[in-house]
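in:
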């Protein structure tokens, strides 16, 4: 999967949007009738619209002392923990908020073998200006359920070149308070001696690296020094809790790639006799037989690499042996994926990570690299013989709907295969990451016995797509249509199931925009990017099947596209060409007049002749089907192009516009006269998306949804009263980094909202408020009935995680709350979220925070905590809200 090296739609925002508090806004109309927005809490259940995978997984890490404990890292979509009982992954970094969106990029993971409940993540997405924040090392003592953060004085690059090398973060396998981190950008090697709480540079480490992918790149993306690539401890050189004596460090330097310390990091030296001319992507040590294996490539990856070698270093004698499975002259790829079988010393496997055509390759040796076998080989070219079979029935889109000619096959074994791990407790299980998924097998032993092992996706729960646009038609079989980076997009008829195929005919590498005809939802249009071929496509059956349109001259990218409300015509603003319109299905496009190239375009949802556009602070209107546009006289709108706007279904000329930047106008605007004038909602400090969903019971206006900052809090908000009041419907545990590309409610299900993320897929939320209470809170104190659901969601030796839902089953709104209970078995609370907690003995009190104080009648508030236990972990049996006893569910 070719991951674009920029945050979708964020780069234009980064300088202003994430820079802090906005200054005073320029004078503009303010909707006088709308009071400042208040915030109330609602209880939402959040899930992914299942796609399963969809992006690059550069790292998989198994714990070396606890069976079935494994983690995966992604380049932009956070980290995950393996759940053996369900054979699925649990996301661990959904708590990363808007202001630190870069911390969803994970450059390295480390799982503590001494204390398996501890896990560490080195986070940061870009080392250049695209990410305004520095990196950090996150540490958790509850397997990633909650985190503490140590900020670093430099940036990290989870989505930078070289991100498949590693692992750059490592825990001493004996003295686990000691960790090392390899830094990029010439920042060197760093060490923590207090379990990751603080870090300092290892001042005497002799080499900060010098390899850059492209020194001429002025953006800083490809021209950054890839730095320190990996850290590997030789556990045989330590005893008890004494620091491990021998440490190997890989450096992005083709002439000086490997260094060693034999005195627990006090001194360092270049490893004598090592190969030169290559980068060491991985260094994996098999302490049982004293071999350090190294995978080399001539490039940093994950896309590039034309030559490679595998080497073995004997730690006792210092002997180097070239164990490459093929001659260097016969490689057209580099090596990176590298693993050993901890149950069978001498068994080693490696990948040809950059073999894009006809497929990746996996190599296996059972004699420490003396001889090798391949996952596939030619019989007589172009025919192949595979040692494996592939079963992608759980994610059938992985075939891309392709029917390639030999020697290519569909589905492919993979590409960008830099993560490869044999389960240290189970020789039959192997997992490896690709650019699109995590594949694995549980009968790897068939490789050596002459049978075929079965490869399947092992990716359920790991959702890594970047979302550009979303649409929820009011009728038809599609619940949701999505425009995605890298894999195009999907039509979901069931949110809980993986669609059989992405959009095809054509397959856009990235879909940038999509729309449907409001009064004829069978008609759908999408625009996107394709290396060669059309950039627009149409469907007449609600997105089930597609056919390509024709591009006007000069088109280089998808841009934005809009359908007339009845599907009779379309307006398209592609990259590389100006705004165009077409009647029918885009067989002939004509240039629109009066609107600048690059404008964002949308349609009125009632009048098929009315279209709208926005560019650089100006709003444009066409009343003749896109033939001509006229600039509106509206002023005070955001001056840049970080804007999204939509017209309300069912009402002509009702337009909502969100966007801006912190150095200028920023917020949410509303027009009821087709964009002739706009009024700014006074209670919304910042807003980046706007969407509509089914109206609440008794409401005359559709429900509004936005990713915004209201009342000083960043979140996902809902209004059932036309923006007069707002409810924050997510919480601090569910933030998903950057959510500024798209949002839409569901026109058929009240309260359901679909949220775009940049790397965590399509998130959807369902409300416990099934018909819709008020948008905000009122004044009464907590009186009347209450109900509590207390659920232990995770438990491990000595620790547990619990979620609590407190429901207002009375008839009036609370404006504060404090819930108390007593633990039956001496449990203690360690950390809590979405609440302020106190504990005295067994008695615990959980109080509201500022943003979730108001709980409407019929609504709920949720919070959670981690705690410790011993012996028994019984649930509390009684709960009180003040002096009111609550029903226990």
């Amino acid at each position: 999967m070719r991951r674009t090296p920029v945050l979708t739609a964020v780069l234009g925002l980064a300088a202003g949007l994430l820079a802090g508090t906005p200054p005073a806004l320029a004078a503009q109309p303010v909707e006088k009738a709308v009071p400042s927005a208040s915030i109330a809490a609602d209880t939402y259940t959040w899930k992914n619209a299942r796609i399963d995978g969809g992006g690059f997984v550069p790292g998989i890490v198994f714990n070396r002392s606890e069976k079935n404990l494994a983690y995966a890292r992604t380049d932009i979509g956070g980290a995950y923990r393996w759940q053996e009982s369900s054979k699925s992954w649990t996301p661990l970094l959904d708590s990363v908020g808007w202001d630190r969106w870069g911390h969803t990029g994970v450059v390295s993971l480390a799982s503590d073998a001494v204390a398996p409940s501890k896990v560490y993540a080195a986070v940061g997405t870009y080392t250049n200006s695209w990410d305004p924040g520095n990196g950090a090392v996150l540490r958790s003592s509850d397997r990633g359920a909650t985190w503490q953060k140590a900020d670093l004085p430099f940036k990290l690059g989870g989505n930078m070149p070289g991100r498949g090398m590693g692992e750059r973060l490592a825990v001493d396998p004996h003295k686990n308070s000691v960790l090392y981190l390899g830094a990029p950008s010439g920042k060197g090697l760093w060490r923590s001696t207090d379990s990751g709480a603080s870090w300092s540079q290892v001042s005497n480490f002799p080499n900060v690296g010098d390899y850059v992918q492209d020194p001429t790149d002025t953006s800083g993306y490809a021209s950054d020094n890839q730095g320190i690539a990996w850290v590997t401890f030789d556990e045989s050189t330590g005893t008890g809790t004494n620091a491990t004596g021998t440490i190997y460090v890989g450096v992005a330097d083709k002439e000086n790639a490997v260094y060693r310390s034999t005195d627990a990091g006090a001194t360092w030296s270049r490893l004598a006799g090592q190969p030169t001319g290559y980068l060491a992507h991985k260094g994996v040590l098999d302490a049982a037989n004293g071999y350090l294996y190294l995978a080399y490539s001539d490039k940093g990856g994950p896309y590039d690499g034309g030559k490679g070698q595998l080497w073995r270093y004997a730690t006792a004698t210092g002997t180097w042996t070239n164990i490459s499975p093929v001659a260097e002259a016969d490689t057209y790829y580099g090596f990176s994926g590298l693993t050993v079988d901890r149950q069978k010393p001498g068994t080693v496997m490696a990948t040809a990570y950059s073999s894009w055509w006809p497929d990746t390759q996996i190599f296996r040796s059972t004699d420490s690299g003396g001889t090798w076998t391949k996952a596939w080989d030619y019989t007589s070219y172009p025919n192949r013989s595979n040692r494996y079979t592939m079963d992608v029935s759980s994610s059938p889109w992985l075939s891309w709907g392709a029917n390639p000619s030999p020697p290519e096959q569909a589905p492919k074994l993979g590409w960008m295969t830099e993560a490869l791990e044999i389960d240290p407790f189970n020789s039959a299980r192997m997992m490896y990451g690709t650019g699109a998924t995590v594949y694995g097998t549980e009968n790897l032993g068939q490789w050596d016995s002459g049978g075929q092992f079965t490869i399947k996706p092992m990716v359920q729960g790991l959702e890594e797509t970047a979302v550009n646009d979303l649409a929820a038609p009011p009728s038809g079989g599609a619940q949701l249509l999505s425009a995605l980076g890298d894999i195009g997009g999907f039509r979901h008829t069931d949110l809980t199931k993986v669609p059989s195929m992405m959009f095809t005919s054509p397959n856009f590498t990235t879909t940038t925009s999509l729309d449907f005809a409001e009064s004829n939802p069978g008609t759908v249009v999408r625009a996107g990017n394709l290396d060669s071929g059309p950039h627009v496509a149409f469907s007449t059956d609600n997105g089930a099947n597609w056919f390509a349109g024709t591009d006007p001259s000069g088109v280089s990218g998808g841009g934005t596209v809009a359908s007339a409300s009845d599907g009779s015509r379309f307006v398209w603003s592609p990259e590389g060409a100006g705004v165009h319109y077409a009647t029918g299905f885009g067989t002939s496009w004509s240039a629109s007049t009066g609107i600048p190239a690059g404008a964002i375009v949308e349609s009125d949802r009632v009048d098929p002749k009315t279209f709208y556009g926005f560019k650089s602070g100006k709003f444009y209107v066409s009343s003749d089907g896109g033939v001509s546009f006229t600039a509106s006289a509206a002023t005070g709108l955001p001056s840049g192009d970080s804007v999204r706007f939509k017209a309300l279904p069912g009402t002509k000329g009702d337009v909502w516009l969100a966007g801006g930047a912190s150095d200028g106008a920023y917020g949410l605007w509303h027009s009821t006269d087709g964009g002739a004038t706009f009024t700014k909602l006074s209670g919304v400090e910042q807003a980046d998306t706007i969407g509509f969903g089914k109206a609440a019971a008794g409401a005359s206006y559709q429900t509004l949804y936005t990713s915004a900052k209201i009342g000083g809090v960043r979140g996902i908000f809902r209004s059932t009263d036309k923006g007069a009041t707002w409810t924050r419907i997510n919480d601090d545990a569910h933030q998903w980094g950057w959510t500024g590309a798209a949002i839409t409610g569901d026109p058929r299900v009240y309260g359901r909202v679909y949220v775009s993320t940049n790397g965590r897929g399509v998130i959807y939320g369902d409300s416990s408020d099934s018909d819709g209470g008020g948008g905000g809170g009122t004044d009464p104190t907590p009186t009347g009935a209450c109900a509590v659901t207390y659920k232990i969601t995770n438990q491990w030796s000595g620790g547990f995680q619990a979620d609590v839902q407190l429901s207002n089953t009375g008839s009036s709104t609370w404006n504060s709350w404090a819930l108390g209970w007593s633990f039956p078995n001496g449990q203690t609370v360690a950390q809590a979220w979405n609440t302020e907690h106190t504990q005295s003995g067994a008695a615990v009190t959980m109080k509201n925070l500022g943003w979730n104080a108001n709980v409407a009648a019929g609504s709920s508030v949720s919070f959670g905590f981690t705690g410790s236990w011993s012996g028994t972990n019984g649930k509390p049996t009684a709960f009180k809200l003040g002096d009111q006893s609550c029903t226990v569910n």
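note: The chain has two helices and 70 strands.
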